[in-house]
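Bump. Still looking for Probable cell division protein WhiA structure tokens.
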Amino acid sequence: MSFSSTAKDEICTLAEERDCCIIAELCAFTLICGNLSIHSGGVSIKYNTENMTVAKRIFDTITRVLKMDADIEIKENLLKKKHSYTIVVKNATLLLSILGLEGNLLTDAVPPREMTEKECCATAILRGAFLGGGTVSNPKKNYHAEFVAGSEAFAQVLYSILLKNEIRAKIIHRKQSFVVYLNEGDSISNLLALIGAYSAVLNFENVRVLKEMRNNVNRAVNCETANINKTVNAAMAQLESIRRIEKEIGLENLSDTLREAAELRLEYPEATLSELCELGGTTKSGMNHRLRKLNAIALDLQHMNKS
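Sorry for the wait, here they are.
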């Protein structure tokens, strides 16, 4: 199962006790995945989903909580090797009235203001929107969660609720839909916790910790490799300079301190600057100054030969 499906299955196990929140969640379901259908008998509303637990939650809410009649249709998608579920409520007028969406064709509808202003119901709206049209990527791959809304108006409602809960999000227009998306680890973790996917939060955070540890190790290794390469390159340049001096003027013509530094580098070609300091009984700045002086002398000799 995908990370999204697992999170949705977990959320669907939550038992919502407040009637207002049950209505708010179903209202979001309706605005995300509800479609009106006009027929000879009147107007019905259909909910489409590929998640069985989500379909069961919608069906139970309508039939068991709201005491309304509903049918469920199951279709097999051979191409995707999945089933799709359609919940049909024939009395759409009554249902829309209960949800506070009466007289609406759902194209630009939004939840009633009293729902969005009530903290518990606003959270239920997010939960319903996620179950109906939300996804969250596997954190092992990338950090991304989104709600796909059919209208800009409802996308703005979701964005505002997230903002009130200090969850950073953005809105983009994709094809015929408006997408509210999150691409920061903290925001996604906070969203999952807010809508009740607590096990998903733990799994998400475990992956984040492992990724951060791996990144820290990689950074440390890369830094150490860079330092080693820098040390090796510097030592090779110093050896080349010392050999040039030895060949052209002889090390015996150097001052005692420079000759000692040159002989140490020749004897210990792979030693670090700190190790050379210990062997020579001097400070880092002192040893570094001597090695730089040797490089400068070799460079002067090179220029003299060219001229």
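The beta strands are 34-39, 42-49, 71-77, 82-89, 134-136, 145-149, 170-174, 177-182.

Edit: fixed formatting.
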